Recover the amino acids of this structure.
């Protein structure tokens, strides 16, 4: 039998999840190897690891998605195992196979399970064979709008066009009428190809006001399969999660048990091992649930399950990968946990990404408050990567106390330099629908007014001329070393630094910087689609173009009715904040 002893691990990721994995690995006595792009040279995960290796320039395609380079570092650093975290290569079956073929231990599920569950159509077939209900939909890719018309007429509108090889809201378009089909079909295929390397899409019946509830499971090689409880992820924006909690409010013990059994049946259907999450849509009746997808990796929101069960899920991942049995054979969750994602986004402008430098940063603390982060004052949230700054994870004896503690933690949190989702969390946690537990997946868009959330202006970091200890990074043969020296050091803020909560100001859906009909880019990104041509007439709110930034497509709309006098960009162009995109007068 192949030796599966793990003494060192390479973490093929960045940000808060790399930090999270390194901390548990070090507690287990493992040597940790970090990889980083040139942009992340001084990131926290780099500082915490025992070794750190440069794997390329800032773009993820040239660094964190460069499988060959990562494997080369694994060999040179003599790592025993590779932990992929989430995102990037975490659900790439080819990468998992390459890790195993290189004689390394893959801290994740079998490549075959990743492959099956990564294909939305193949996963539906496997899940249906296991007797688990799925949302009514097609079992094969659709290649034309005409095919979708036939399906939509059968299911009835609305329907959802979805990427066959991805998730997280990417490649997803909801269609409410036939005249929306062409744009939705084109957009879903374009986004699916960009994010998952395949333009294949399929169609499902779109459920009205469902809850998004997922089941956390662990499966080892010794016949042990454990359901750790469910998480409610119904507070979402742009089909991506914003708040998660466990237990799910209003879920009956009967449905919870059925959902856990269904999740374990899904795992058995694909011969799953390691930690995984099976996602379901819970119908408005609170009884009927349908398989949505399986995330064959560690989930962002695994933290809330850890808080109520006391199980370190990353530790269990390492144990399973090493061929050891689960450390627990049953769990009895206690209390209530809530996770708040703190992203660099402006909730008042439809959660538009706001990359930039953090000029002030202070995390909340206290009993029952956990913060998983990777930043400090002076850190830069780059347009090249996901804009997650941190996760605030709250535990309390019951939901009412957890909400109160979460509100206190949000009030303590200070972030300067970029707009964040903290303002949205203030609104959500106080909203009567959330308090009553009656929210659903489109609730934020349908019922929550975020227009009055204030946004702090960008803040400069003043220079402190006093000498202070500083670190310089040098690289030898690709490996990172730190050298200390004394020099003037930038201060993390100054007497005039702004607090996170400035006076409220009302905003509109017009892009930032639009004045006198001049439409400017609200952020750095890439133009992926033009919706109009020079000379076209538009009404207020009409789409002008689509700007992709930080893994999100952002629709830039006309601030007022008029004529498109000039378009200064075309599809494929990269733009910086403030660049003129179009003129409408």
């Amino acid at each position: 039998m192949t030796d599966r002893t793990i003494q060192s691990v390479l973490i093929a990721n960045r940000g808060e999840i790399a930090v999270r994995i390194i901390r548990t690995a070090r507690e287990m006595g493992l040597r940790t190897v970090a990889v980083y792009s040139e942009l992340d040279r001084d990131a926290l995960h780099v500082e915490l690891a025992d070794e750190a290796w440069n794997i390329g320039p800032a773009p993820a395609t040239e660094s964190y998605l460069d499988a060959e380079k990562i494997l080369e570092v694994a060999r040179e650093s003599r790592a025993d195992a590779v932990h992929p975290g989430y995102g990037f290569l975490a659900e790439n079956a080819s990468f998992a196979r390459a890790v195993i073929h290189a004689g390394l231990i893959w801290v994740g599920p079998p490549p075959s399970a990743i492959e099956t569950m990564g294909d939305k159509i193949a996963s539906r077939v496997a899940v249906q064979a296991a007797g688990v209900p799925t949302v009514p939909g097609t079992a094969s890719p659709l290649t034309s709008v005409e095919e979708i018309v036939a399906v939509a007429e059968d299911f009835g509108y609305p329907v959802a066009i979805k990427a066959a090889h991805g998730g997280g809201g990417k490649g997803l378009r909801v269609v409410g009428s036939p005249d929306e089909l062409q744009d939705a079909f084109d957009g879903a295929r374009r986004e699916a190809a960009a994010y998952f390397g395949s333009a294949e899409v399929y169609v499902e019946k779109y459920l009205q006001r469902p809850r998004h509830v997922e089941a956390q499971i662990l499966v080892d090689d010794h016949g042990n399969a454990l359901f750790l409880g469910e998480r409610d992820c119904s507070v979402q924006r742009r089909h991506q999660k914003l708040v998660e909690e466990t237990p799910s409010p209003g879920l009956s013990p009967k449905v919870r048990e059925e959902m856990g059994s269904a999740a374990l049946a899904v795992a058995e259907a694909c011969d799953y091992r390691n930690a995984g999450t099976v996602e379901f849509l819970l119908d408005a009746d609170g009884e009927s649930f349908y398989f949505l997808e399986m995330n064959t990796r560690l989930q962002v929101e695994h933290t809330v399950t850890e808080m109520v069960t006391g199980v370190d899920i990353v530790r269990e991942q390492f144990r399973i990968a090493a061929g050891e049995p689960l450390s627990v054979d049953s769990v009895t969750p206690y209390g209530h946990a809530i996770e708040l994602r703190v992203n660099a986004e402006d909730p008042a402008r439809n959660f538009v990404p706001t990359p930039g430098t953090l000029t002030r940063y202070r995390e909340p603390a206290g009993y029952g408050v956990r913060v998983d982060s990777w930043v400090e004052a002076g850190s830069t949230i780059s347009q090249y990567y996901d804009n997650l700054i941190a996760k605030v994870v709250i535990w309390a004896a019951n939901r009412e106390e957890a909400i109160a503690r979460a509100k206190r933690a949000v009030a303590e949190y200070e972030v300067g330099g970029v707009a964040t989702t903290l303002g949205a969390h203030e609104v959500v946690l106080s909203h009567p629908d959330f308090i009553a537990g009656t929210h659903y997946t489109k609730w934020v868009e349908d019922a929550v007014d975020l227009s009055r959330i204030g946004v702090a202006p960008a803040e400069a970091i003043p220079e402190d001329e006093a000498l202070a200890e500083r670190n310089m990074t040098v690289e030898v043969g690709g490996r990172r070393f730190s050298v200390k020296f004394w020099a003037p050091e930038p201060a993390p803020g100054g007497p005039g630094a702004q607090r996170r909560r400035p006076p409220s100001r009302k905003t509109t859906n017009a892009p930032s910087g639009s004045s006198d009909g001049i439409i400017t880019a609200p952020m750095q990104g890439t133009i992926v689609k033009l919706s109009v041509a020079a000379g076209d007439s538009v009404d207020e709110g009409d789409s002008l173009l689509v700007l992709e930034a930080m893994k999100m497509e952002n629709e830039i709309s006309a601030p007022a009715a008029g004529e498109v006098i000039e378009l200064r960009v075309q599809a494929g162009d990269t733009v910086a904040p403030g660049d003129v995109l179009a003129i409408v007068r």
Notes: The domain at 518-584 is CATH 2.40.50.100 (OB fold (Dihydrolipoamide Acetyltransferase, E2P)). The radius of gyration is 24 Å. The first helix runs from residue 15 to 27. DSSP finds 15 helices and 32 strands in the chain.
